[in-house]
Design a protein that fits this description.
single chain, about 90 residues, alpha+beta, 3-stranded antiparallel sheet, two-stranded antiparallel ribbon, 3 helices, globular
Length: about 90
């Protein structure tokens, strides 16, 4: 499926995304995340791996939209709150 991320077109299929993410240790799940296989990854991490672009070059929304079109579940993980009591 053709996806445009950071103004560059990519052709992905779900199995390709799964293969690219296999063996990648998930960063802490904060904010927009995607469930790929048995892991939950921040979408910016997924975008960086599958596009080989710096994550500052695209938005989380672009990657989320592409992953949803490919059939992946995307969720918003809670952001850690600052506990004023320590």
């Amino acid at each position: 499926m053709r996806c445009v991320i950071a103004s560059f077109p990519f052709d992905f299929v779900p199995s390709e995304v799964q293969t690219l993410m296999a063996g990648v240790t998930p960063e802490p799940a904060v904010g927009p995340c995607a469930v790929i296989g048995d892991h939950t990854y921040p979408v910016k991490q997924v975008g960086e791996v599958i596009t080989r672009q710096d994550r500052r070059d695209f938005t989380a929304a672009e990657v989320t939209r592409a992953l949803r079109r490919l059939g992946f579940t995307c969720v918003t993980a809670p952001t850690p709150s600052a506990d004023p009591l320590g």
